[in-house]
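Changelog note: in this version the structure field was regenerated for every chain. One regenerated record is shown below for reference.
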Amino acid sequence: MSFSGEVKEELSRQFQKSRHCQIAEIAAILAFEGRVEEDSVLRVYTENISLARKYFMLIKKTFHAEVKIAVRQGGYLHKSRIYVISLLNPKESGRVLQAVKWQDEQGQDIRSDELVHGLLVQNSCCRRAFIRGAFLSAGSMSDPEKSYHFEIVCATEKKATQLMEIINSFDIDAKIVPRKKNYVVYVKEGAQIVDMLNIMEAHVALMNLENVRILKEMRNSVNRQVNCETANINKTVNAAVKQIEDINYIQETVGLESLPANLQEIAEVRLKYPEAALKELGTFLEPTVGKSGVNHRLRKICEIAEEMRGKAKG
């Protein structure tokens, strides 16, 4: 099962005690997957068994209504299953539709072009429940081993904007991007996706994601350290190669004895220990010299060699 599927499976088994939160979650599911059909039959169509299970149990717990589930074959070559969850009793459908602000007490349609009626998501706990229902219905997450991406697909820009505002009320920086005929509300930063799982109360998935993030950060830290050390080694090796080239040039041209005693000494030590670091080279001198002193002497040798090359060209 994908990570996204694991999150939905966990959310499908979680139920809030408060009736207003249950209604908010039902409202989210209906906003994305619900249809009012002939004779006031309220139906939800989904290929996601986690969503089918959650909606079925929510309706039973919240409204004690009689719910029917049917399974149909759908998609190319009938390889997928479509779960149809129906409320066949018009009175029971009416109770649900009134609760989610789709109908008034006279059974008149009062839906707007918003995703959800504002009264249903006034409380923080209800906004959590609504986001949970929205993710179950139209959300997905990427495998955190590969990338960090959380999204919920909405049919219109206005609905996406409302959902984004609900998510951002929890200090999340969700954004919207158009995709084909839809609008996608998404979060890409790893820490904020952890926060999203906390908002939806998917605590097992949250811990799994945190474990992945810790391991990835450790690997990245090790890689950064290795890259830094490799760069330093390359820099040291390149510097040593250049120093030996300069010393050999001086030796072949005028001889090392032409150098001042302190420079002749470090030149001979460098030729003898071509792979040694500057600090180590200093320990071979009498008296010993620190890293900066060794570097200063080798730079003087480099300047002398460059000056000799310049005169030779001239």
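Spot check on this record: The CA atoms of residues 265 and 285 lie 7 Å apart. The chain has a mean pLDDT of 90.
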